[in-house]
Amino acid sequence: YPRQHAPQTHLSEFNLTEIEAMLGSYIKVLFVRDPFQRLISTFMRGMGSSPSFSSFVQDVLDSGQHNAPVAWKPLVSLCRPCLVRYDYVVMFGFLRQELGHLLRRAGLPVDSRLPEFTDTRVQGTYSWLSEQMFSELSLQQKKQLSHFYRWDLAAFPFSRSLLSD
User: Fold this and answer.
1) What is the residue-wise DSSP string for 104-131?
2) Which among 11, 49, 137, 138 is placed 20 to 30 Å from 131, CA to CA?
C-alpha cells in the first residue's frame, strides 16, 4: 500500500476507504490451528505459571476471552475472518502443501530449498498428546473450553478437534 506509515500502525488507525484499499492490495493469508492444540503448545512452551495442564486450562478460562493473551485468545477475535476476506486459510498440518502455491500466487520464486515443516509429522504426536491432556480435564472444563472457542470451532473446519464433541 503506497501510504507511508510506521510499522507499528494498527489497521484501526486508518479510515474505511484506506482500509479497503490496503486490504485489496495484499494477498491475505490466515494460518489457523485447532484451539486445543494451541493450548497444549502454549502450556508446553511454559507460557503459564500453572504446574498442571488442568490448572493452566482453569487459568485460561478464568482470564476470559477479553483479557486473554494472544497465545490462547480465540482466533476469530484476533483475525476477524467475518470482516476480512482472506484469500487463503491454511490449516496447521498443510503448510508444506500450500507454501508453493502461495509463493507462486504472490509472484515469488518457488525455491526447491524450502524449509522442512514439521507440522505434518507431529500431527500423530499431537493426537496422542491431545487425548492424554484432554483426559486430565474435568467435564465442566471441557464444556467451558468448547464454549470459550465456540466461534473458532464454528468458523473453521477443525473436524478432529476434541472440543467439537
Assistant:
1) HHTT----TTPPPP-TTTSHHHHHHHHH
2) 49
